[in-house]
UniProtKB/TrEMBL annotation:
The chain crosses the membrane at residues 44-63, 75-92. The lineage of its organism: Bacteria, Bacillati, Actinomycetota, Actinomycetes, Micromonosporales. This is TMEM175 family protein. It catalyses: K(+)(in) = K(+)(out). It is a multi-pass membrane protein. It comes from the Bacteria. It is found in: Membrane.
Amino acid sequence: MSRTRLEEFSDAVFAVAMTLLALNLAVAGPGHGPLLHQVADHWPSFVAYLISFFTIGLIWVNHHALIGNVAVDRTLALLNLVLLLFVVLIPVDSSSSSR
């Protein structure tokens, strides 16, 4: 497997994980008060979004630094999949199990 192919696949997975973070953000919408008040009512969700976004971003930056300095082989590709498995778990909403 080429380094470019591994990086492009990984970048796509990181992008999906970061996009999934935004799905947990919601406000009631028009007719339920000013937007700023609605956002303030859900501040824990927005703080969790920021922390998770920057966590995934830091992993992504370090991933690029690492992949740029190693030879890509089958073992690295499999280890990369394990890393990506945990990256994609970051956006999982733990409160969804109590719904």
